[in-house]
């Protein structure tokens, strides 16, 4: 049911016109106290101090469901860092003010300053590249760390640090080779120089390694000592190449687990390689075949992002991460973000959509792809519309989600916008929208008929 927000949906629940709504404690508190609605659970790691008798969803057996509602101030992309930081300090000071806190308590709002971050939230249609100064309400406890823009990080001197960016452009050595018909550049970091720069930085910094080469494959060797130090400071590694950019939180590399898999006596015996490469012609042909069969338009050459751990002749490929990992791919022309999406190639050769942001950077269009697994990625256009969605209130959303391969119609021309949706279909939509990996699972429910999804 479409509503205009809490002021619209909560009365609908109270009046029996809707069975469920999800809102903040502040929005629902008065109606709940008046007995007009019943609050079923709190979507946070802990109970709300304003609703001490209402259990969290996790306490009720619903695992992994937490949500953050936030209110904040936004400024345009490109706002100078010193302006952003000044606002951040001012807002942090305001949040600590007793008068502000008293007013927040009267509104039944829990406030914690989240600081200046980029891309706090994205939807499946598009993202805006802005800084968000957020006040998090009813949030799970904040773990710390920050995110910094790195669009200008390739300039500067070796080991330079600016606003959380550590540029190691002059701290590398490289070699060139040919492997299976592809040109390869192998880059090795100077661990001593890198650690010295890291020791002078704050937690949550990003080590940027700009690599200028036309090679088909760029293989960057990350020293184990640096990786451990980065993980201890909640920092990330950003590899910048002409093929693409790969941003990986160091904590995603579990050194102790890798040591067991690789039979390494010490973690220091392990070498970590971060690889960004153009895919070979056979794989390009496979992707192009799928694109043509499904009437898509490919707008960029496929790129593979890979992380390897080696100990002598033993090698393990690290494919899965606990958080969304960022990959940037330059697009040679402008695109419509409502009909364009990043896709991943699955093991069976099919393509699936992944959360994608499009932004302009240095006069170029960049696809920012976020997913929890490594693989081959490309970007496709898919202008989709349905005749029976014309005039419908959800026409734009239907067409956008279908263009992004998240929704599918009854056939090529028909969507059925007033049709019912099963729980299984809704779950499938969420999986595609979030770019999750498809996994087969068995479940048995007495009240569900086999093959119905209901």
Walk me through this protein's architecture.
With 454 residues, this protein is an alpha+beta fold. It has 4 domains: 1-62, D-Maltodextrin-Binding Protein, domain 2 (3-Layer(aba) Sandwich), CATH 3.40.190.10; 69-137, no CATH class; 160-381, no CATH class; 384-454, no CATH class. Helices cover 22% and strands 29% of the residues. The strands form 3 sheets. Strands 6, 7, 9, 12, 13, 14, 15, 17, 18 and 21 form a 10-stranded mixed beta sheet that branches. Strands 4-5-8-10-11-16-20-19 form an 8-stranded mixed beta sheet, with helices on one face. Strand 17 (340-345) and strand 18 form a beta hairpin. The longest helix is centred in the N-terminal third of the chain and has 15 residues, at 81-95. The radius of gyration is 24 Å and the shape is globular. It starts with 5 loop residues before the first helix and ends in a 21-residue tail after the last helix. Mean pLDDT is 81; it is low at 117-163.
What's this, in brief?
The protein has ten helices and 21 strands.
């Amino acid at each position: 049911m479409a509503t205009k927000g809490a002021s619209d949906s909560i009365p609908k629940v109270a009046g029996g016109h809707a069975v469920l709504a999800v809102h903040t404690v502040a929005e629902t508190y008065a109606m709940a106290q008046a007995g007009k609605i019943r609050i079923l659970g709190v979507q946070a790691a802990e109970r709300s101090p304003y609703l001490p008798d209402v259990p969290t969803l996790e306490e009720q057996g619903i695992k992994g469901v937490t949500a953050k509602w936030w209110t904040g101030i936004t400024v345009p992309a490109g706002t100078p860092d010193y302006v952003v930081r000044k606002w951040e300090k001012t807002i942090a000071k305001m949040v600590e003010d007793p008068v502000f806190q008293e007013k927040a308590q009267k509104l039944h709002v829990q406030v914690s300053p989240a600081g200046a971050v980029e891309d706090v939230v994205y939807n499946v249609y598009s993202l805006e590249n802005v800084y968000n100064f957020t006040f998090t309400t009813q949030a799970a406890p904040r773990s710390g760390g920050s995110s910094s823009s790195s669009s200008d990080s390739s300039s500067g001197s070796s080991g330079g640090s600016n606003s959380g960016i550590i540029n190691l452009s002059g701290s590398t050595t490289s070699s060139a080779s040919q492997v299976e018909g592809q040109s390869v550049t192998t880059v090795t970091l100077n661990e001593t120089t890198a650690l010295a720069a890291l020791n002078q930085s704050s937690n949550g910094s990003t080590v940027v390694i700009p690599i200028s080469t036309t090679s088909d494959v760029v293989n960057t060797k990350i020293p184990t000592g640096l990786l451990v130090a980065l993980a201890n400071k909640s920092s990330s590694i950003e590899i910048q190449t002409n093929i693409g950019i790969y941003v990986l939180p160091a904590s995603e590399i579990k050194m102790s687990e890798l040591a067991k898999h690789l039979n390494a006596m010490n973690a220091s015996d392990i070498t970590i390689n971060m690889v960004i490469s153009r895919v070979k012609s056979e794989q390009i042909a496979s992707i192009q075949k799928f694109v043509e069969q499904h009437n898509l338009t490919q707008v960029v050459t496929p790129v593979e992002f890979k992380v390897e751990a080696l100990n002598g002749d033993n090698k393990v490929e690290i494919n899965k991460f606990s958080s969304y990992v960022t990959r940037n791919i330059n697009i040679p022309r402008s695109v419509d973000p409502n009909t364009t999406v990043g896709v991943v190639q699955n093991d069976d050769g099919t393509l699936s959509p992944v959360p994608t942001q499009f932004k302009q950077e240095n006069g170029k269009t960049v696809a920012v792809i976020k997913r929890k697994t490594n693989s081959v990625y490309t970007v496709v256009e898919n202008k989709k519309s349905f005749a029976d969605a014309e005039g419908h209130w959800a026409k734009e959303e239907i067409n956008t989600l279908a263009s992004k391969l998240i929704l599918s119609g009854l056939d090529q021309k028909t969507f059925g916008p007033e049709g019912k949706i099963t729980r299984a279909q809704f779950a499938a939509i969420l999986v595609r929208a979030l770019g999750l990996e498809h996994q087969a699972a068995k479940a048995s429910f007495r009240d569900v008929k086999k093959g119905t999804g209901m």
